[in-house]
Write a structure and sequence with these properties.
Elements lengths: L1 H8 L4 E6 L6 E7 L4 H5 L4 H8 L9 H4 L9 H10 L9 E3 L2 E4 L2 E4 L7 E3 L1 H6 L3 H11 L1 H10 L21 H8 L5 H7 L10 H12 L3 E3 L6 E3 L6 E3 L4 E4 L4 H17 L13 E7 L4 H4 L15 E8 L6 E7 L5 H4 L1 H11 L16
Antiparallel strand pairs: 1-2, 1-13, 3-6, 4-5, 7-10, 8-9, 11-12, 12-13
């Protein structure tokens, strides 16, 4: 499965993380570009080190846990959760989307030029309606959104037993005043409501978060090793799974999210993850890069310089009814998440689920 993930990324920069949402077991952790550690084991010359260290694609960075990216529309899962838990919004609240949302002197556009028409929360998730979530964000405020995002483990370490994990940023009014010595503006909340602006996450964090959605609200610490057998004595040392705690949201909130995320794949923006053999639920995301303003000069994606193209996200789990795998896919500078990241998640999930006896795949990784 690891080899497949690496091949699916190919020459693109990005990361794929897959976890077992029942216990946090790490099934896949792929980062691209990478380097061959066997080359280093034969002796590191200054020329070789210079070649690796100066590579502008940063192969020494493990993007799975060190890459920090705007989550794009995958963050709508957290914003929707905040809305469902708030007395300021409900699942039935309707918004008319005409393709843009005015706020002060600024106009915030929807990804769909002509708009989506009248949307409720369910269909806004399925169609990834930006204007709907702009309205949600403006009503709830950044601090409510940030509080809910942190419940899903964003803005904090996952606890994986690897060094140098980055935690991203979950912005709030207090954060901006402390870090930038500036007040928070409403327009920044509107950007944050679709996963843009200051907010950043790692692919590992998003895999943990979508796993918690799939299992009804349990955050697991990612587990790399289940057990190790000593070669000399044959003694087996086991490492139990660790629950970081529940995501304290109502059961109905998780049921709502699960239904909507299944519909995303069946009839929404995640159609390219639809499988004939496995029921997959998920959410697309398209995260603008620093060059977003440049990319808007052309509607032809191929005409946009690659470094200015959007990052493609897809978070998913399967089977939708009894999840056994949760996946986060991030592909840098490729375009829409539904077009580029969703098919990768589908291929990985289908390969994993070929054998119905999934538990037999968890083998002791090595001996000492």
């Amino acid at each position: 499965l690891q080899r497949l993930a690496e091949s699916l990324l190919g020459a693109e920069s990005g990361a794929i993380v897959a976890l077992d949402p029942r216990n946090g077991d790490v099934l896949v952790m792929a980062s691209s570009p990478a380097y061959d550690p066997n080359v280093l084991s034969r002796g590191l010359t200054s020329a070789l080190w210079e070649q690796i260290a100066s590579d502008t694609r940063h192969p020494l960075t493990n993007r799975a846990l060190q890459g920090q990216y705007p989550p794009g529309s995958t963050f709508k899962i957290m914003v929707a959760s905040a809305a469902l838990e708030s007395d300021k919004w409900s699942a039935d609240t309707k918004v008319r989307c005409a393709g843009a949302f005015p706020s002060g002197k600024h106009m915030f556009k929807d990804w769909k030029k002509g708009g989506h028409g009248v949307m409720d929360l369910y269909h806004a998730i399925v169609q990834s309606c930006d204007v709907y979530f702009y309205n949600v964000g403006q009503r709830l405020g950044i601090d409510t959104i940030a509080e809910t995002a942190r419940l899903f483990g964003l803005g904090q370490p996952t606890g994986i037993d690897l060094p140098s994990e980055r935690i991203g940023v979950v912005p709030s009014t207090e954060w901006k005043q402390r870090v930038r010595k500036e007040p928070w503006y409403v327009g920044e909340t509107i950007s944050a409501s679709i996963g843009q602006g200051y907010i950043t996450v790692t692919p590992l964090q998003m895999a943990v978060a979508i796993g918690a959605v799939s299992n009804g609200g349990t955050l697991h610490r990612p587990r790399l090793v289940r057990a190790v057998r000593e070669r000399a004595t044959g003694r087996l040392q086991e490492f139990p799974s660790v629950e970081r705690g529940p995501v304290p949201l109502q059961e109905d909130t998780f049921h709502f999210l699960q239904d909507a995320l299944r519909e995303v794949v069946l009839h929404g923006t995640g159609g390219r993850a639809r499988s004939r053999s496995i029921s997959i639920a998920g959410k697309t995301g398209t995260a603008q890069t620093v060059g977003a303003r440049v990319s808007q000069l052309s509607t032809d994606e191929e005409a946009i310089p690659k470094q200015f193209r959007d990052h493609a996200w897809f978070v998913a789990y399967a089977p939708a009814e009894e999840p056994q795998i949760a996946v986060a896919v991030l592909v840098e500078n490729t375009g829409h998440g539904g077009a580029y990241a969703a098919p990768i998640a589908k291929a990985l999930i289908e390969e994993y689920m070929k054998d119905s006896d999934v538990d037999d795949r968890h083998q002791i990784a090595g001996q000492f």
